[in-house]
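I had to read the description of the data format several times before I understood it. For illustration, here is how one protein appears when written out as sequence plus structure tokens:
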Amino acid sequence: MSTETRLTLRLDDAALDRLRRHPAVQRYRLRRAQTLREHLIFFDSADHRLYRDDAMLALVRPATKSAVPVARLQQHGGDSWSNPVWQWACPGETPVAPPFHLPFPFPATLNAEFTADRQVTVIHLGADAWEIDLAIDRHDLACGGRTAVFDELSLQLKRGEPASLFRLAAELAEGLPLRVAGYRLIDRAHALRTGKALAPRKALAPSLAADCTVAQAFSTIAHSCLAQLVVNQECLTLTGDPEAIHQMRVALRRLRSAMAVFAPLIASPQTDRLRAEMRWILDYLGPARDIEVFIAEILNPARPLFPQPDAFESFAEVFRARHRTAQSVAKAAVADPRFTALLLSLALWAEGEGWLQAVREFGPADPDEPARQFARTVLERRYRRLRKALQDLGDLDEEARHQSRIEAKKFRYCLEFFSSLYPGARADRMAAKTGDLQDRLGLLNDIAVSRQTLLDQARGMREPDAIWAAGTIAGWHTARIPALLAESIKHWGQCRRLPRFWMD
């Protein structure tokens, strides 16, 4: 087994010549570039077990006839740029089980899923502290009678620290329209095979080692948030799916929550700058998501109240048009080079840039504190704040309910951040119950905010039908409040009865 640390990027064909002439490429070039060709056959079980386990198995046949084909199995953790790779000689037509132990079962039966003819030009770059292979890849993909060509640019670390990848990528992004890739070749191949669009992705709980330190825990959590952000920004670019905007926003909010949790550890001017840049992109993503929620949660459920559709449709179309505009604005912001620069800066920062050395020298936090000890303190503090915010939930006003929803969200994020440190499913159960509570409180807040939105739109249209539609929708949702509040109280009671497992 070896560990491969790789950053994949996208670059238009028109910019490839500029890449080769880029000052950074010229400055760091070590020797002549190499061009390689190979044929790859990708395998999986009939139920696509490997793909579901974030693994990829290929039989690699080099263009050199004398070279022995090898089986290459890679596992992708989803929250790291470094992933384990296993390779072994395999002269047959189908990969056989390796002659060594794997941490997961090797499929008993394999099917050829798709093929790729790969041509890669490798430019060897390096400096005193690092060496990186810059690979320009072209894959001619064939799958189930469908074909496609996928190009990508990758930086593979050969020597040095992962931070070197992000520094080099940031240099290359100066003057080049680079984008950080989120989807792997196998993701795009499966989309080609099924004929389905690439889908947005929800957050995954980060996988923390049982004995990790608080600094290692933060780095893993930050990379997990960043992985969700990266894959959904590419989904938005390729498909325009509005759910990708929502998941990008979730990723950024999770990262901001992690920043708050680990604030004494990561305090630095760079952290402050990144917070400001995150606010910049959230200012573009927020309106698109807010209007989408308004349409889905406020307008659409009230549609059956209108026996004659004209009044409803003319009123709703104003918001649909506003949503389309907000989506276009958000997509343009994500395409801005400033956003790519933000992603690369966040990745470098997650490696410890700007804060790890400072906290080691000056404190105030201990980066080598056991993460589980830190998690115990954080979870207990967040739980007590939530319990205090939800006192007399049935009697809280709208603003207090909104604040209690924020506390529920912060507590749920912490549960998800640290769940892998605790055996069993206790953290997952509490996170699920807290999520149910958060959903109900969120809907109550959406109803409260929608009243002013409906009123402002009706006044702006100055039409009797619009005023009537706004009043009808607002009245119907107001009547839902007692039931939603009762559900919130029920979910909080269920959550409160669960054990505080972090205190064991």
The mean pLDDT is 93. Residues 246 and 289 are 6 Å apart (CA to CA).
